[in-house]
Amino acid sequence: MSRRLKIDLVAPPFEGHLHPILGLARILREYADIRIFSTPDAATRVADAGFQLHPILAAHARAVWSIPNTTRPVRGRPWMLLQQFRQNLRLLPDLRREISAAWATHPPDLAIVDFTLPSVGHWARERGIRWWTSHPSPLAIETPDGTPTYLGGWLPPATLLGKIRDASARKTIHLFKRAMFLTHARPLRAIGLDRIYRSDGSENVYSDDIILALGSAALEFPATWPRAVRFIGPSCYTPPPRDDVPLSLDPSRKNVLVTLGTHLPYTRRQLLSLLPVWAAQMPDIFFHYTTGGKQNTGHSAPTSSSASTELPSGPNWKTYRYLHYDSAVSRFDAVIHHGGAGIVYHTLNAALSAVVWPQDYDQFDFAARLAHHGLALRCSHPRQIPTALRRILTEPGSRERAAFFARDLHQIDQPALLKNLLHERGLL
């Protein structure tokens, strides 16, 4: 009998990164002994998924969460992006020591590493360990001819002028990334990144072996993807909650899920002031808002605030500290969300239409794709949301388009695709 594989999966503790990794791990444990690496506050979610955590950066858990949890949007503020980049760099020496110590005694056959931790992949390569990148937001991967992302949610060009716009933007992004590397070359080379682009033009921050694109190619805009990219479908997994969170739907009204994910604290506060207004404008709709945190069981950033604070509600709206997407999303009639990868694919998987109010990062690009394919209405201001919500609930085509896309998603056999990749690379 052949020896079982050893696979290590590495991700930050943020739900949009950790949960896809856990979904992959639950498939791969049929073939391999699994270790999950993340910060200690991920231990509960890792255990609930059926694994034991190998903790990293225990002394820096709060610093890790402070990187994405900004007090205002990063978009349009390159100095904030630079600050996040430098915060990351400060953590990498300790991370390297801890990862190297684990691999010195028990090296895996394969390391699957979230795309936000490219240095870990290069450290694996240095030790002769195969490295694959896990990417829940493949739209961020640069292509030689596609519409560039992180520019506010551009749509594919329809004219020659649009094609020139895209080409110019791709060149500008190249120059910006090269400048970032040159101005930080010493610390980057110290942690294993000796260049930003390979000779074939692909990005050195991703594996040149396999990039697990955790999404549907059908949602993406036309592009020539790097040869390492393999679309294997979304990883729609959330660990089961330890506390039973009752979801009480109102049978006399349309029930709408409202979520802004687990980051964006500044917008979540604003949303609590908007909910009573929307509810008053649309008394025939019941709004269910999840704040995206579960502080007492590690479902959010470390905090000193009490998890027992009473949550606000009204006649036709209610606030939840946490809703389990796997079991809850499909019970709603529609979703209002921010365009994060997780809720995008949970909504699509449930064949629901959505109103998207993007806030930061890749959310504008997800919103552009959803709107382009007729799967959601994109709003740039909250005052547009009530009208948009009414449209997706009443227009017959909205639900049909969502159902058609969901059928395609359900045909993706992610376990079979992963098994084939393991065979293809001689690991099985």
From TrEMBL:
Keyword set includes Transferase: yes
Q: Which domain of life is it from?
A: Bacteria
| Example of a GO MF term | UDP-glycosyltransferase activity
List the top taxonomic levels of the source.
Bacteria, Pseudomonadati, Verrucomicrobiota, Opitutia, Opitutales
Write down the InterPro entries for this protein, in alphabetical order: Glyco_trans_28_C (IPR007235), Glycosyltransferase_28 (IPR050426), UDP_glucos_trans (IPR002213)
Q: Does the keyword Transport apply?
A: no
Q: Which residues form the Glycosyl transferase family 28 C-terminal domain?
A: 256-396
Q: Which GO terms describe its biological process?
A: antibiotic biosynthetic process
Q: Which CDD domains does the UniProt record give?
A: GT1_Gtf-like
Name this polypeptide is given: Glycosyl transferase
